[in-house]
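User: My instructor asked us to take a sequence, write out its structure as tokens, and then describe one feature of it. I'm not sure where to start. Here is the sequence I was given:
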Amino acid sequence: MAADVSVRMGAREWALLLVLSMLWGGSFFFAKVAIAEVPPFTVVLGRVGFAAVALLIAVHAAGERLPTDGQLWLAFLAMGALNNLIPFSLIFWGQTRIGSGLASILNATTPLWTVLLASVLTVDERLNASRLAGVVAGLAGVAVMLGPAAIAGIGQDLTAQVAMLAAAVSYALAGIFGRRFRSMRVSPLVTATGQVTATTLMMLPLVLIVDQPWKLPMPGHASWAAILGLALLCTALAYVIYFRILAAAGATNLLLVTFLIPVSAVLLGSQILGERLDLWQFAGMGLIGLGLAAIDGRLIGLLRRTAIAAA
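Assistant: Let's start with the prediction itself. The structure tokens for your sequence are:
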């Protein structure tokens, strides 16, 4: 077994992670708007279908081509199922039963599952005390920042909450599985395109059988705008960034984005909508910051070296 390798992010990866958190922070809002008029499976199909079209155009414009290798397309199908079909369907269905705040907290368990699963399934993202403490601090920060109202519904709709947790586990497995695309020498743009194209192919028969969209009333402008926002911003653009971070920094670091999503949502609400920030939100952000620093490892390493030097 190979030695443990600490994968750390540079300034570029941290900046991309912040951008990704803002893109995915908007997905809960867009989803809530879309599922008010459109069934969850159809929303998923719209999200990945429009994203696939946009990414196929981007691939062609960049002078790249989708691969024809069958083994690579099997990997795209597996990644599409783990990263899109399963979690999107579970989250959109879960949001019909529970609030967005509680959904964000349950989604924020993704790094915890990633740390635990990566320690078993990989040789270079092993579990250590610093990472585990960082994940726990970050998860506590999310809960504190969103406030008592967000966690008040815990236990009231167990099925929906289990669905949200299952989505988080699926995201964690996707992050670990997706590391292989770097060794396959597939660019982040092509990987993102292959993944959402494969998901579209899998979702289409499911939607035709279950939702039968031709029988549904035509959704309003708000729902169309929400689906396009999910597709172009929260999926097409977000997944190009996702696979770039994954190739550079690994699954555990990448999925720290779920801690930052609530922070981005709160800060955007404050700056754009003029919403007031309360004391517990600043406290929660502080805990998330400590958690991220512990998982990154450099701050703790610096403090340890300083203490040794002083001793």
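For the description part of your assignment, you could build on this observation: The first helix runs from residue 11 to 34. Try explaining in your own words what that tells you about the chain.
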